[in-house]
Design a protein that fits this description.
Blueprint: E1 2-7, E2 10-12, E3 18-26, E4 30-39, E5 46-52, E6 59-61, E7 69-73, E8 79-84, E9 93-103, E10 106-111, E11 115-119
Parallel strand pairs: 2-11
Antiparallel strand pairs: 1-3, 3-8, 4-5, 4-9, 5-6, 7-8, 9-10, 9-11
Length: about 120
């Protein structure tokens, strides 16, 4: 079992900053990737950022957040952060953390419950 818990959401004014956290725990052998998705009201879920964890080094962002958002991890590589700056109302969404975990070439996707980010004046 793998548990994924996000935190750090809230209300922020346009142009402001916010940092989200995602902690993975439980029976974890290998995490090749961790990432952030978001789902704005009435819209489909989209990838925000993804980061290689235990082996890979790549970091990818959706075009709309490049230069404004930064994904990072702690030294244990079991917590991932999303630093968000220059926020605008289009960033309003429920943000979900996805952890890809497994072993021996068998991996599954684990999702957090989501945390609300609202950008409004």
């Amino acid at each position: 079992q793998v548990q994924v818990v996000e935190s750090g959401g809230g209300l922020v004014q346009p142009g402001g900053s916010l940092t989200l956290s995602c902690a993975a725990s439980g029976t974890i052998f290998t995490i090749p990737f961790m990432g952030w998705f978001r789902q704005p009201p009435g819209k489909q879920r989209e990838l925000v950022a993804i980061m290689g964890i235990d082996r890979y080094e790549n970091v990818e962002y959706v075009d709309s957040v490049k230069g404004r958002f930064t994904i990072s991890t702690d030294n244990a590589k079991r917590t991932v952060y999303l630093q968000m700056s220059s926020l605008n109302p289009d960033d309003t969404a429920v943000y979900y953390c996805k952890v890809v975990a497994g072993r021996d070439g068998h991996f599954r996707d684990y999702w957090g419950q989501g945390t609300q980010v609202t950008v409004s004046s």
